[in-house]
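dumping this here so i dont lose it again. seq + smiles for zinc ion
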Amino acid sequence: MAQRWVVAVLRHETNTFSPVATPVRDFGRVGPTDGPATGQETWRFYRDTNNPVAAYIDLAEEENVELDFPFAGNAHPSAPAPDTILDLCSEAVIGSIEKGCDALFLDLHGAMVTEGFDDGEGELLRRFRKVAPDLPIAVALDYHTNLSAAIVDNATVICGYRTYPHIDMYETGLRAGRTLIRALNGEVSPMMAWHSLPVLTHMNRHAPSMQPMQAVMERAMKAEADGSILNASLFGGFPLSDIPHVGLSGIVVADGNKDAAERFLFDLMQELWDKRDEFVFEVEPIEQSVAAAMGIAPGDGPVMLIDHGDNCGSGGNQDVMAVLAEVIEQGLENVCAGPFSDPEAVASLIDAGIGAEVTLQLGGKVDMPAMSLVGQPVTVTGTVRRITDGQFTVSGPMFTGVRMNIGRTVVLDTGRIEIVISEGRFEPFDQGCFTHAGIDPARKDFVLLKSRQHFRAGFEPIAREIVMVSGPGTCTSDYSLFPWKKSRRPLYPIDPDVESNLPSQS
Ligand SMILES: [Zn+2]
C-alpha cells in the first residue's frame, strides 16, 4: 500500500520585546487569507515557491506517496503569539496523523514564542510526539532558530537554512526531506547531536556570507556534501528574544553513530566559540553615523542610511523617528526616507489633499514598554506630493513578481526630504516602495531606510555607500538595553567573562 505523509507550515519569528501584536489572523500573510490556510488553500499558496514545504511536496510526488497538507500559518515578526495558534496547528496536524501517517515533514521557524510557551516549536513537536511516539519527523528551520532540547528530542532529522537573506529555503526542505526518506527506506539511521552556546550574536555580524560564520558554515556544508555526515546546520540564533534557550547553536545528523555526530559538532561549535568576539557589532551614536554619511564624497548613486534599531522585519514598529530627526537636524539634502508606518498621519495628509502644505507630528505613536521607551514624534512641515493605494509589484530579486500592499501611502516633501508614510509596516527590500510613489531613489544623494539585511536585495545595486545607523527601538543592536529576565545568564557579550559550556577536549 502507498505511504501517506503529512506536511505542515508554522512560522513566526517572535521578538519578545516588540509592541506589535500577533493575532491569529496575521498567520495568513503569504496569501490573502484571514488567518492560517487549511484545506486546498495550503497547496495554492505554497506549491512551487521557495519554501521548505514546496520541496516536501515535490519529494512526495517523486516518491509517489499520498500527501496531506492540513495547515499553513506564517506571520510577520512581532510580539508573542496567542497559544491558540499552537492549538489550531496541532489539532489540524494530529487529525491528519490519526488518519494514518508514515512520516511528518514540518516547515517551522525555530524562534517562535507564544504567550504561554517560550519554545513554540518545542511544544508543537512534543504534542505530535505524544500521539505518535515512533513517527519519523523531518523539520526545516530558519537560520534564526533558537534551538532547544524539546525541538531536537521530538524530531528525527533537523536541517536549517544556510543563508541570510534566506534564499535556500526550498533546498533546506530537500536536505531534511531526503535524509528522512533514506531513513524510511532503511538506508540510514539518523542520530542527532546538538549544542547551544551562551552567545548572542549580532544580526549585523552573523550572516553566513561573512566571517566568522562563513568559514564554519563552509566546513559544515563540505562534510554534508562529501557524505561524512548526513546533515550539518548552524544557527545564528534570534537574539531579540528573552527566553531561556536563546543562543548560537548547531546540529549534526550522522548515520547510526552519535559519537561521530558529537565529535564533528563540538569541533564546529568550538570554532564559533573561539571567534565569539567577531560576532559583536559596535554601536555608535546616531549623530556620528549621520555625520559620517554626510561626509562621504559625492559620486554615483545614493548613500544609504540604514536604521536597524526599528526594523519591522524583526518586530519593530517602524515609527521610531530618531534617525529622521537627526537627518533633518544635520540638514541633509536630496533625501528620500521611509516608508514610515503611521496610519493616523496618512489619514490626515489624505484629508489635506495633494498640494496642501501641512505641519504635523509624524510617527512616534507606538510606545515600547518592554524597552521603557515612549514614542516620540518629529514635527515636520512639507507639501503633500502624492497619494497612492500602496500597491506595487516587486521587481527586485527578493520575492520577485509578488504584489505588495503596504496600505494607503503618502509622500510628504519637506523640500530637502521626500518622506514616504504608509498605513502598513514594510521592510524595504525592494525599490517599489519609493518608485510606485514617483520617487527614484537612484537619483537621490541619501536614502534613509528601516532595515537590517534585506534592503540589500533591492538597494545594494544603486548604493554609493552603506552606513549602518543604530537607532533606538525593539531591534537595537545594543543588547545591554534589553531588560533580560528569562534568558540564561551569563550570556556573551552582555556578560563578557562567560565560560564555554562545551565539553572539555580529551
Ligand atoms: Zn530568519
